[in-house]
Specification:
single chain; mainly alpha; 20 helices; 75% helix
Length: 408
C-alpha cells in the first residue's frame, strides 16, 4: 500500500517514554557521581553493600536504554511522514542532527583527553561514547527508512513492513557477529580503555566489544528500539493491532531475559566482570529484555489504559517529565564534571570538608553511602534546574540548539 500522499495524522505524545528517560537520567547521574566520589569503588565493587551493588550493576542498562528510547521516538516520528514533503524535511533534519551529535561527541572526547590523558588524544577521538551512538543511530535509521521509502515508491509495497525486515536482518547479523567475536576480543587481552596508536587496535576498540561504547554491540539497542516502535506502530494502528503485536514483543522480551540470565549463571566464558568496559553478552540480552518489558508495562499503564492515569502521572511527576526534556544537556554537563579527576587537591579538599560536615552521618554510613546520597542530591538539583528553566522553554539547552540548527 502506497502511503506517499496520505496526510500526516494528528500529533501524539507517549508520556511513558519521558518518564523512563528521566528515571534513567537520574539513575545515571547519581550512579556516576557515586563512582567518581570514591575512586576505590572500582576495586571494591564486589564487596559493596548489597543495595548499592545492585543499584550500580543495574545501572548498566541505562546507556542501552537511552539508545532504545531515542530510536523508539525517532521511528515513531518517521512513521508519521507519509507525504514527500514531510520526508524531505525529515531527511534534512536527521542528517543535520546526526552530524551535530557526532561533533558534540568528538568535542567531548577531545576535552576529556586534554584533561586526563593528552597522550591518548587519537584514541579518545576514536573511542566512541553515547553521543557517537546517537549519531550512528540517526544515520542508520535514516538509511533504513530511505531504502523502504524508495522501494515503496517504485514497487508500491508497505514501507513499514520493509523497515521491519531490514531491522530484523541487521539485528540478527550484528548479534551473531557480536557473539562470534566475543571470545576473540577476550583472547586479544585488550584490558585497558586506551591502546597503543596502532590502527587495528583502535578499530577493535571503536567497533567491537572492548571499547568504551563500541558500535557492536551498542547498535543492537537502537535497532531493537526501532523494531519495537514498528511493531506497535502507534501513529497508524488501532488498539486491537497494538495488543496483538504487544503480545509478540512480550514473548521476545521474556525470551531475551531468560537467555541473558542463563548465560550469566551457566556459561562462564560469556560472562565478564560487570564493571569492565563494555557490557557482556548476558547484559546485552538482559538490557534488551528489560527495556521491552518495562516499556510495554508503562505504555499500557500510562498511555493506553486510562486517561485518569495519564493525568495523574502528568500532575505528580512534573519534575521527572521536565528533566527528561533536557536529557542531553544534563548528560553533557554531568560528564564535563565527571572527567575532572577526583584526586585533584582542590577536589579532595572539598570532599574532605563535606566529610567533616557529615561527620555525624558517618557514624552510621560509610563513604560510599555518602557518595550515593550526594549523587542523588546532584540528580535532584538537575530536576530543580529543569523546573526553573521551563519558564524560558529550555532556551540555549542542547535540545534547543539542536532543534534550531536542524530546522535552519
Amino acid at each position: 500500500m502506497n502511503t506517499m500522499n496520505k496526510p500526516e495524522k494528528k500529533r501524539f505524545y507517549i508520556l511513558s517514554v519521558d518518564l523512563v528517560q528521566s528515571v534513567f537520567l537520574i539513575w545515571f547521574v547519581s550512579g556516576h557521581t557515586c563512582l567518581w566520589w570514591d575512586s576505590t569503588i572500582d576495586t571494591q565493587f564486589p564487596n559493596l553493600p548489597f543495595i548499592i551493588n545492585v543499584f550500580l550493576i543495574l545501572s548498566f542498562i541505562v546507556p542501552p536504554g537511552f539508545l532504545f528510547l531515542y530510536s523508539f521516538n525517532t521511528v515513531n516520528s518517521l512513521l508519521r511522514k507519509n507525504t514527500a514533503e514531510d520526508r524531505k524535511r525529515s531527511r534534512s533534519r536527521l542528517l543535520k542532527r546526526g552530524t551535530i551529535f557526532f561533533f558534540i561527541a568528538e568535542f567531548a572526547e577531545l576535552s576529556a583527553a586534554l584533561i586526563n590523558s593528552p597522550q591518548f588524544i587519537l584514541n579518545s577521538l576514536l573511542t566512541w561514547e553515547l553521543f557517537h551512538q546517537f549519531a550512528f543511530s540517526t544515520f542508520f535509521l535514516l538509511v533504513v527508512f530511505e531504502i523502504a521509502w524508495s522501494i515503496e515508491k517504485h514497487k508500491n509495497w508497505c514501507y513499514q513492513k520493509i523497515c521491519i525486515i531490514e531491522l530484523i536482518v541487521c539485528f540478527v547479523f550484528i548479534l551473531l557477529l557480536f557473539l562470534l567475536f566475543h571470545d576473540y576480543t577476550q583472547d586479544l587481552r585488550i584490558d585497558t580503555l586506551f591502546v597503543e596508536l596502532e590502527l587495528n587496535s583502535i578499530i577493535q576498540k571503536a567497533v567491537f566489544e572492548n571499547g568504551q561504547a563500541p558500535i557492536i554491540p551498542y547498535l543492537l539497542f537502537p535497532i531493537f528500539g526501532g523494531i519495537f516502535a514498528l511493531f506497535l506502530d502507534f501513529p497508524n494502528k488501532n488498539r486491537g493491532s497494538i495488543n496483538r503485536n504487544a503480545g509478540v514483543l512480550t514473548i521476545i522480551g521474556v525470551s531475551f531475559l531468560a537467555i541473558g540470565f542463563f548465560m550469566w549463571t551457566n556459561i562462564e566464558k560469556y560472562v565478564s566482570p560487570v564493571i569492565q568496559y563494555p557490557i557482556s553478552s548476558p547484559v546485552v540480552f538482559i538490557s534488551l529484555g528489560a527495556m521491552s518489558l518495562i516499556m510495554l508495562l508503562l505504555i499500557y499503564l500510562i498511555d493506553i489504559n486510562t486517561l485518569y492515569t495519564r493525568k495523574t502521572i502528568s500532575k505528580y511527576f512534573v519534575p521527572f517529565i521536565l528533566v527528561s526534556k533536557i536529557t542531553l544537556t544534563v548528560y553533557f554537563l554531568h560528564n564535563v564534571g565527571y572527567v575532572i579527576p577526583s584526586n585533584l587537591p582542590i577536589i579532595q579538599s572539598v570532599i574532605s570538608d563535606v566529610n567533616i560536615d557529615l561527620l555525624i552521618i558517618q557514624f552510621v554510613l560509610s563513604d560510599i553511602h555518602i557518595a550515593l546520597i550526594v549523587g542523588i542530591l546532584y540528580a535532584v538539583f538537575f530536576m530543580l534546574v529543569a523546573l526553573v528553566w521551563k519558564k524560558w522553554k529550555f532556551k540555549y539547552s542542547f535540545e534547543w540548539i539542536i532543534w534550531k540548527l536542524q530546522s535552519s
